[in-house]
Amino acid sequence: xxxxxxxxxxxxxxxxxxxxxxxxxxxxxxxxxxxxxxxxxxxxxxxxxxxxxxxxxxxxxxxxxxxxxxxxxxxxxxxxxxxxxxxxxxxxxxxxxxxxxxxxxxxxxxxxxxxxxxxxxxxxxxxxxxxxxxxxxxxxxxxxxxxxxxxxxxxxxxxxxxxxxxxxxxxxxxxxxxxxxxxxxxxxxxxxxxxxxxxxxxxxxxxxxxxxxxxxxxxxxxxxxxxxxxxxxxxxxxxxxxxxxxxxxxxxxxxxxxxxxxxxxxxxxxxxxxxxxxxxxxxxxxxxxxxxxxxxxxxxxxxxxxxxxxxxxxxxxxxxxxxxxxxxxxxxxxxxxxxxxxxxxxxxxxxxxxxxxxxxxxxxxxxxxxxxxxxxxxxxxxxxxxxxxxxxxxxxxxxxxxxxxxxxxxxxxxxxxxxxxxxxxxxxxxxxxxxxxxxxxxxxxxxxxxxxxxxxxxxxxxxxxxxxxxxxxxxxxxxxxxxxxxxxx
Length: 489
Fold this sequence. Notes:
Blueprint: H1 29-40, H2 42-56, H3 62-84, H4 93-101, H5 103-139, H6 147-163, H7 166-194, H8 207-210, H9 215-224, H10 231-234, H11 242-272, H12 277-283, H13 285-297, H14 299-333, H15 352-371, H16 379-408, H17 416-444, H18 449-476, H19 478-481
């Protein structure tokens, strides 16, 4: 049985005697918040995704899109954090969906989550390699080396940080995130202070602009930019006083991202000018933001941004690597994956074997792409677009799971807003976004309809295969089935 004290969970006794060593740590609220922010790479969102939403999404209404997405994710967080106060298992979406919708759907969702995070991780590594290649060659006039060489170096560095104690990664992420936030805030202030070429604009908040362009695609991309806040629950075992730290970190992370994205989108529209920003963003998404930075902050700031994009994506690699490794660890703790993946390092207290396997998967994936001669420049958008779809499905399943969980456990006496209304609004909204996502998967990955069909089949195959495996366990290995979703055996 799991015994709780005021701050931490004590080890549980596994079948067969002895004590299973559990993850431990002392992560603070700020450490977890910076991990979530790092996963989403705010500077990369500013340079790459915000211009894309302006150019291909709902155009001048982009700031309102980010505010609406923030409100939606906050509705989700209401139920998510309320359930977390009663469900103390780590494992996040995997554990929550299992507790609400049952072990079969829970195991299927864990496979879906792993797939999403590995795509996120591969995309981050590819983009990091390309960014480093460009930085070394174009800014520092260094040698012209293939992007995948830099990518393998990054995988090695991230692997080392994932191997050691989680607090070291949190400190590295904090430093990088401070620099990112400073440069974004500096641009926002400069844009509004100087007024822009057409004066201070309120065009983003006009009703005619809020609903302009492809609102559905913009909503999908907007929600995608809030991914990774699941980490607030993934690191539960390594958090200081998780009962307070987890909810606090969740809300701070979401509100920080929402305000940063909305204000920066408005500042970019203001800085370029509402008459030109849509066409310019559609033609050159990356160049629009960096060009605006150079215009308002100078050439030095432009070079700094290029360097910080590299550190931004590096921080995202660390965060995504750590989340992926802990999913492997959780599934091993539940006896679904091999027992070696649940080993905890005697000195660092990290799931070091799961971390090494995560690095190995990244090496194999990137090596296959390099051998195939794939252009690394386009990989980030494609792989991140791929990962966005299963993330939406996980948010939808978790929202429904929250409602069902509280219906089955009325003894918790959670108010109707937290147990039904907020997660219900989130579920309906995520269902709409999922439908939009299904219709726009090809657009997210560059227009390849055949690849889009293959990927959709892959996502649902992962979900179904997890469900099927759980049913096999229920019949042949009931002791494993009982543990699925970090449940008590």
